[in-house]
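Comment thread on ticket #2218

A.B. wrote:
> Attaching the input chain for the structure job we discussed in standup.
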Amino acid sequence: MSENLQNIKANKTIGTNELIINIIHWIRYILSKWKVLALFAIIGLTGGVYYYNTHKGNYTAEYSFIVSGGNGPSGGYSGIASQLGLDVGGTSGSLFDENNIITFFRSRSILDKVLYSKYKNSDKLIIDRYIEINGIKDKWSKNNISAIKFNAEESKRTIQEDSVINGIYKIIVKSNLFVDKPDRKSDIIYARFIGNDQVFCKTFIDELMNQVSLFYKETKSNNDLRNVEILQRQVDSVKNTLNASIRGVAVAIDNTPNANPSQQVVRVESQRRVVDAETNKALLAELTKIYR
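C.D. wrote:
> Ran it. Output below, let me know if you need it in another format.
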């Protein structure tokens, strides 16, 4: 029994020694390959830094909105209105219909208004912040334009400034701003801004929607004012014609006070005047319905 216990202890001692030897052997092997391991570590670190720098900008700010087809209550009068030169909206040629709104959102004119807007109520412009967070000014140092200043007042802008803005505009519409309608059967349009700064993305898309809204209100107000002026002229014209028709009825009746009932031709003039008066009255009523 004692011999068996001694053999077991001897085997355990041998097994422990072999384990230690193997560990030392692997440590020496790993140390002998330190150059290879260091190379892999450098590659991994470089890849991680590159991935971070190229993928850190996956912030997205999004708006969705519906473009109405213009089939409102006033649609029944759109034909009359268009013949009179009025713009009551809802036509396929409108700037704000679904066929044009996507192009409008990405237009140079509207994006200029956004870029030259104040960034979060500060003295800095949105264009300044965009250049800052994207490191664009560092790339400009070679072209001697890093010191350029952007003027919110359009009259003070230079040709060089306009050229720079145009370059930034092209970058934005290619890499940052996306406006589309995924479902052709739906009236929902999505506007998205993708960038590497979460706050900036939201600020940019908010200002874009604000500028579009301001432009729409201004355009709509101008159209309404123009339509009112046109409508007023049309109403005045019809009123004058109606008054003349009513007077013509009275004159025609006075000219034949005792017309012979058997001679219908004598009553033609007065009846024609009545028809003219009723027609002008109906037209005046339709005109007033357009903007009621």
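A.B. wrote:
> Thanks. Noting for the ticket: DSSP finds ten helices and three strands in the chain.
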